[in-house]
Amino acid sequence: MLDEQDKKTLLRKLPHGLFICGVKDGEEVNGFTVCWVMQTSFKPPLIVNAVRQDSRSHAMIQASGVFALSFLAADQKDLAQKFFQPRKRVGNRFEDTEFYLGETGCPIITEALGYVECQVVGSVVYGDHTVFVGEVIQAGVHREADLLLLETTGWSYGG
What we know:
Layout: H1 4-11, E1 19-25, E2 28-34, E3 37-41, E4 46-52, H2 56-64, E5 66-71, H3 77-84, E6 99-101, E7 107-109, E8 114-126, E9 129-141, H4 150-153
Antiparallel strand pairs: 1-2, 1-5, 3-4, 4-9, 5-8, 6-7, 8-9
């Protein structure tokens, strides 16, 4: 029988970076903190991004077929927290965060380390998250620094 505590303890030890996922649907934009992200292919360059199915942003990715990931620096925990908390009004998260729209029309955080923009080329729907497979169609580096890691925040998302 599965030991729930052991499972939770070990799954929470998987290393995860923290990113702001920028999404759009028409003129509407939103962003949220994600950590279940990884590269899965060199040619073409593919990223997988697991997104909660009951979120508004999930629906926006499905509708637009694009998303952007802004890579957060180790000193940007407050920014990750801001985009991690649920909001009732879509787009409200950007009211005091400087951003610009990328090639896909998705918001990119100006002060992030950099970004990748992805075109969704597939998805896997299973459990409470959808794994979106995105082909990287644009990327840019804003500055150099260490990536913000989930384990350094004291938060947990997993298990």
